[in-house]
Amino acid sequence: MVWNLDKSAESVKYRKERLDRGIKVRSDSIYSLTSYREALYLILPRALTVVGILVLPLVLDEYWTRVLVITCVIAVLALSWDFIASAGMFSLGQGLFFGIGGYSAGVLNHYLGMPPVVTIPIATGLGGLLSGILLLPVLRLRGVYFAMVTFVLPLIFRALIEATGAFQGLEGLSGLSPLPNLQVAVYVIIGGMFVCFFGFRRLMDSDYGLILKAMLDNDRAVMAGGINIYWYKAQALFLGAAAAAFAGAFMTHYYRFVGISAFALDNSVLPVAAAVVGGPGGFAGALLGAFILVPLCESLRNIGSWRIVFYSFSMVIFVVTVPEGIFHYIARKYHQYEKWVEME
Amino acid sequence: MMGMLVYGTVNSCILVLMAIGFSLTFGISGIANFAYGALYITGAYLAWHFLNSLGLFYPLSIAISVLITGLIGVVIYRGFLFRVRGIPLSEVIVTFGLGTGMLEAYRSIGLTGHGYKLPPFVDGSLELFGVYIDYQRLIIIGLGIVLLLLLWVFTHHTKLGLAFRGMAQEEETALAFGIEPESTAQASFGVGAGLAAVAGVAVLPLSLLNVEDGSNILILVLAVGIVGGLESTFGIITASFIFGFSQIIVSTYLSPLYSPVVTLVSIVLILTLKPSGLFGSSKELEERV
Lengths: 344, 289
Hints:
A: two-stranded antiparallel ribbon, 70% helix, B: mainly alpha, 12 helices
């Protein structure tokens, strides 16, 4: 960034210089921490978040606990979006995965009478598998074309269920088995969210994740390296879709209902908005985005149906003005300091 | 049988009319305009408001609404897309977010219901090969043909049109010949938005104005684009006719509710068998696969 702060005769030019803080350098590259301060510098932000989220259900009243549940569901969807995106696949149809998971759980419970303990894990796997198989023919597509197809699919699924009347059509499956109580529900979804979050992070740091990242950067180069990118894309899609299907299955039992609203546009827009506002890549951004957007929207309760408008426009504004996202912005401020220096 | 033929043709022309603006913008600037459905609805709503709230002359209100929608397109490009140009995924987020936001805003304002209906251009119907067909549908066929001819003249004999084609073929070479990519892309986005409005005001008198149409149109347009190959006008026409007739056939023999299945199956089939689309070029193939 170059600014001409002083328009006077000499016209001195300034630029912004960013330097890593000393403590970041010390705690980064030296493999033994030498003070509590350095240890806290690393641990505090992470531990505070985890402990904070775990304690939240104990201090919140019932209404806000319910908001927390929705927030965590959106966070799982956003994490799944971020994971698929970091493997080079840009999805606009998280609603598809969510809906498939939701309907799997609903059908298993309604027709076969399985309890939630069984249906949620099965629906998670089944949702991932079905979504993976469904998208197998379009895995070859790149960029915008993949986005187009994933955008179309959930809406068509919705139309299909409407047309064929399968799974009780427009009415949906209702009266399904509930989760034991709200406390259990909230810790199930928080647990699921943390498994996704830390699992995906671990995975992206491994050699396996390296291949996924490389597919995002340059898939042709990965192909040239003799790696079958379609096989890896299918695997990544399975994992991402399974996470979203878990959220869907959870919601089915939480609401004791699943209907075509599971494929609605909300479930596709919200995760993308959360990930974009929080900052795509690295998963923490997606989490932060969901924890900012959903409660914010809930506190403006009376805006009612304007909520999607709010989500969509905040997504647009963020992608244009703060493309790195809130999380990466904060992380930069935490790790680096900035100052204006004179340019020669 | 004759009815199927006539209505299939009408349906196909409607699809051509809808898809042409989307494919124009995409072919030239490479921006997939996910706000297309919203612009389509915007055009029709503006026309309705000029007609009913301001009491303007109908053709005049149509002309103004098309113009304004085109300008909205230009504003979207200037205000948002300009800053993220060249990052395809950000472009998608911007157009998708704006499109969804606009449509949901219309829904929240309550722009839906029986009051919102545009009158047909000319009332009445006539008998054609033993099938009754109203004038509005005939006008749509005529409008489709006229628009295609105008577009051909525009892209082959005007300076801006030639710039459009240059950009579509090779952006950097076009730049070397003094065609400014930014303003050309902006113009193409504006023209695409205007064409969306033209389709909206021509097609929506056939039914009620409905926010749902916005996303349905987008699905159809994407399907036509994927099957036909987005750069090729001929591909768009062919794909529109395939969809137009298959939808009519499915609605006659099965149920109108099954027409989304046709869309889905044809998208999946074409992507598996011939990913460049029926008439797409190799350049496009590289972008896709």
